[in-house]
Amino acid sequence: MQTETQDTARTSPDEDDELLRERVGTCIAEACGGDMPDGVAVHVVDRRVTLTGRVEDIDLSQRLEKAAATPPGILGVSNQLSTRVPPPPEPAGQPAASGMRADPSSKPSGQVNHKV
């Protein structure tokens, strides 16, 4: 049988999520020098964090995602932040003549022996 103090000590899932949201906000603020970045919202549902809003660049977005994952009890973080500065372009791939896009149907017919 539970006592009255045990019943009141338990919190509902919504209260747990609210407490986690506050902890995540504190961790994000600490990662940003003490202040929560403008335009960033933290949502917690079933111990899963979703970050929304707009930040300056991809580095800050990744820093906030990492900070949001630090409080105990967080099961995962969905980073839906957009950035004002576009990410740097992807490095160029292999040149076409490198063989990376070789077509296996263009090889000569018959057996090919390779010396080792």
From TrEMBL:
Species assigned in the record: Cupriavidus campinensis
InterPro entries on file: BON_dom (IPR007055)
Ranges for domain BON: 16-85
Region span, Disordered: 1-20, 67-116
Biased composition (Polar residues): 1-11, 106-116
Top-level taxon of origin: Bacteria
Protein name (Swiss-Prot/TrEMBL): BON domain-containing protein
